[in-house]
Specification:
By secondary structure, the chain is of the alpha+beta class. It contains 23 helices and 12 strands. The strands form 4 sheets. The chain has a 4-stranded antiparallel β-sheet. A 4-stranded antiparallel β-sheet has the order 6-11-8-9, with no helix packed on it. Strands 1-2 form a two-stranded antiparallel ribbon. A hairpin with a 5-residue loop joins strand 8 and strand 9. The longest helix has 30 residues. The N and C termini lie far apart (75 Å).
């Protein structure tokens, strides 16, 4: 018990230092690397089962070991994407003292092996997949080929094939590893523990440095592709700076050659044009034209991003602000770690999915068009609304709101008062009966076009079963007040819904009780309808009387006093 209290206190202390000093942020990362228990808690739909590590070894993508491994691969990827153009352009085959650097490809080969055991989250169901065959098949269909080709010892193959130049070009496949760097920065941008401004600036500086570095390497490569007798007709072979001539530039030390190439790339990018170094042949001029054109786009990208940082208001910043406020709220209320993870996962889903943009588009569409297009196909296939008029369905469609839910989330709890109805548009849910001792029993599976919460809302009874998400679901929600107001306007459709509800629930274990409730509601509705007809006839309101009769009222039926519309 005492250990649990200490662990909970440490968790809150970490999150409360979000806007603290640099020292507090360093201590946060130090705590992040501490050992924790490897046991799993919470919903199995959200996390890998504990026994998946037994007979079948699967790596958890959110586990501490893999996070350390991915951070290490991020550093190696930076080395690889910067070293690849340098080695290609400055060497025709690596010299003996640099051959040991090729051993780094063994680390990337190990990363290929890791991906065959790395669980992933299915983008359609949002459930974690830990089946080894599905993991391997997904990786083979994805980036396995490029990852594997990047691990080949192309320098050794180049020398073995008699120094075929085309073989050397295959080393550029290793730049595909840049996706690991991009993924790392995306993760850092969403990490509220790290300054968003700092992360974006580091990312932009990295992009600028890499583009300049690659251009410098290509400038030198263009000079080395000419025969030795014509190397004086290149930008570096004809260069004279002070009392130093670069006519034999291959004899100049490597660092000086690289700095000279980097200087040309920078002054060209900045379009400074000192005149001390410039292109001297057609090939170099063509490359500079392409390079300067690219630099204009790169400059626009950098300036646009810096402006966005100053103005603020991006989706990522709004997400970070909301996550920060949510974290502080959970700390103040000392919520459990399982609840924390579910709440944060739902917020991440809102950020990553496009349903917010869809909601904005829905609000911009006129009501008349929304009632005929959006969700009409789904609503018309729901059993509860079968036999209802098109006008009634149109009113239902207008009041619908779209929401997404992650696996393991509980939509409705057994015994609670429900004020919303959900229509399953995509995904799968399950109805669960909670028995004695909190034992669970699966009652039924809910698939697209099924409806949730209808009995509790229409019959004004507590929710009979708990409804939990099995896979990523897209649900259409309508609140009780909106549904009730629509039912009061369409008496005939209201009776049809009660009839459909009665037919759909006859086979349930609680069917008799529900049948009694629905029968009572039907009788009460008919009695209210008859009273309304008699009242309209008594006051001579022909328009209301005509509307009630067209809605299904029988003027010959008597009310509780034995009087009917004709007698009145």
């Amino acid at each position: 018990m005492e250990r649990e209290i200490v662990a909970e206190y440490e968790l809150n202390e970490i999150d409360d230092t979000l806007h603290g000093s640099v020292g507090s942020r360093l201590s946060l990362f130090a705590r992040e690397l501490k050992w924790r228990s490897s046991s799993w808690h919470g919903s199995s739909a959200l996390r890998l089962p504990t026994n998946c590590y037994g007979g079948s070894f699967v790596i958890d993508p959110n586990g501490r070991w893999y996070r350390m491994w991915s951070n290490m691969m991020f550093l190696w990827s930076i080395y690889s994407v910067f070293y690849t153009p340098f080695a290609f352009c400055f060497f025709r085959g690596l010299p003996e003292h640099l051959l040991d650097l090729e051993c780094a490809q063994l680390i990337f080969l190990a990363d290929v092996a890791v991906h065959f055991f790395l669980a992933y989250r299915d983008p359609h169901t949002h459930r974690v997949v830990y089946d080894k065959q599905r993991i391997a098949l997904r990786y083979i269909k994805g980036s396995f080929a490029l990852d594997m080709l990047g691990c080949f010892p192309w320098d050794a193959i180049y020398k073995f094939t008699g120094r075929m130049e085309m073989v050397r070009y295959l080393v550029w496949l290793r730049l595909y590893r840049a996706r690991k760097i991009q993924g790392f920065f995306k993760k850092m941008e969403k990490d509220i523990r790290i300054s968003y401004l700092f992360t974006r600036i580091v990312k932009l500086v990295t992009v600028e440095l890499y583009c300049t570095h690659t251009a410098a390497c290509i400038f030198y490569y263009l000079a080395t592709t000419l025969p030795p007798a014509h190397e004086g007709g290149t930008w570096i072979g004809s260069l004279t700076m002070g009392d130093r001539s670069y006519i034999n530039f291959r004899q100049v030390d490597l660092l000086t050659r690289y700095i000279t190439s980097l200087y040309l790339a920078i002054v060209t990018m900045a379009t400074v044009g000192y005149g001390d170094i410039h292109a001297v042949n057609t090939r170099e001029m063509v490359f500079i034209v392409v390079y300067v054109s690219f630099d204009m786009l790169l400059g626009a990208y950098l300036i646009g991003n810096m402006t966005a940082l100053i103005v603020k208001g991006s989706r990522t910043e709004r997400f970070r602000d909301k996550m920060t406020e949510l974290t502080r709220y959970m700390n103040r209320n000392r919520l459990g770690s399982d609840i924390r993870s579910q709440v944060k996962a739902h917020l991440v889903l809102q950020y990553e999915s496009s349903y917010k943009r869809d909601r904005i588009v829905d609000d911009d569409i006129p009501v008349a068009i929304r009632s005929k297009t959006l969700y009409m196909d789904i609503v018309s296939k729901v059993n509860l609304f079968k036999g209802c008029s098109e006008d009634f369905l149109s009113q239902i469609v207008v009041k619908l709101h779209e929401e997404f839910f992650l696996p393991g989330e509980v939509i409705l709890e057994q015994g609670t008062v429900v004020d919303q109805i959900y229509i399953v548009a995509h995904g799968c849910l399950e109805e669960i009966g909670i028995g004695e001792g909190a034992s669970e029993m699966i009652i039924s599976e809910l698939l697209p076009y099924d409806i949730v919460g209808d009995v509790a809302v229409i019959c004004n009874t507590p929710q009979p079963y708990t409804v939990r998400v099995c896979e990523l679901c897209r649900l259409l929600r309508i609140d009780k007040q909106s549904l009730t107001s629509i039912l009061q306007m369409y008496f005939k459709d209201s009776r049809q819904i009660l009839s459909n509800l009665l037919k759909g629930k006859r086979t349930e274990s609680k069917g008799k009780q529900l049948e009694s409730n629905i029968t009572y509601l039907i009788a009460k509705q008919e009695a209210d309808l008859i009273i309304g007809v008699n009242n309209a006839a008594y006051h001579g309101d022909l328009f209301r009387l005509k509307g009630l009769i067209s809605a299904g009222a029988d003027p010959s039926k008597p009310d509780y006093d034995g009087e009917d519309c004709i007698g009145t």
